[in-house]
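Hello,

Our lab assistant flagged a job as stuck in the queue for most of the afternoon. It eventually completed. Since we weren't sure the result was trustworthy after the delay, we are filing this so someone can double-check. Below is the sequence as submitted and the structure that was eventually returned. Let us know if re-running is recommended.
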Amino acid sequence: MELSKVTALMKATALEFAILTGHLVLYPSGIVAERLSPAPRAADPSAAPSPTGPDATIASGRRPVVLLHGFVDNRSVFVLLRRVLTRHGRDCVESLNYSPLTCDLRSAAELLGRRVEEIRARTGHAEVDIVGHSLGGLIARYYVQRLGGDTRVRTLVMLGTPHSGTTVAPLADAHPLVRQMRPGSAVLRELAGPAPGCRTRFVSFWSDLDQVMVPVETARLDHPDLHVHNIRVSGIGHLALPVHPTVAAGVLGALDAGGPVAPGAHEGEPGAASVA
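-- returned structure --
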């Protein structure tokens, strides 16, 4: 291995350790579910009711953002990203904790669907955006592709998500969720199947030094039926993806862009886009 690559890996590993240490301190604060954002006040009392509920009104402003954490994690992982989003005009940002006892990715996707419906009814927005880290991205993708979530989710941003499965830590296969993240699992075969007409815009950040995604390219999303934008990140590891300021800026840009990518398009080929 070249000296430059060794140096980059050492720096990334040191950063991962520092982030892990800080996250362990914050972890207890994220165990309890957060307080929900209040419903917006209608600007016009005569506004027509929203299709999401008889008492809701069409909300103004930007779409709500739902943050979904990864395996054995909680909402505390998004402290810094959430701050960036709210600072730049996203006034409704909510995190969803799914139980650490969850044993089926599909169940977590159903829970996500219920939360999205609740947010739509409460805020009056017809659509939301979702940011998922690692397993969280896979859960959100299942909701969009398999449970009709593409009519509810405008943009899905995924950070270090094992779209093709990861082979890291084989001893962890005792956990059902880990088995569902393995190459060739039933869930991944479902997601690899046809998805004609899927409306959601997918943006997938993958890092060339992500030691949890094995191989690293598994965090690229390649599917002929999906609107995809892959973004390569250089020089940081898996835990840094939801906290690195440059990645946060990239996430913000992806959400603010919000426009469609041509069906089947796969932008940001390896080496073409680097945000760190």
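-- support follow-up --
The delay was a queue issue, not a problem with the job. The result is valid. Helices lie at 3-26, 79-87, 105-123, 135-146, 176-180, 186-192, 245-257. The chain has seven helices and seven strands.
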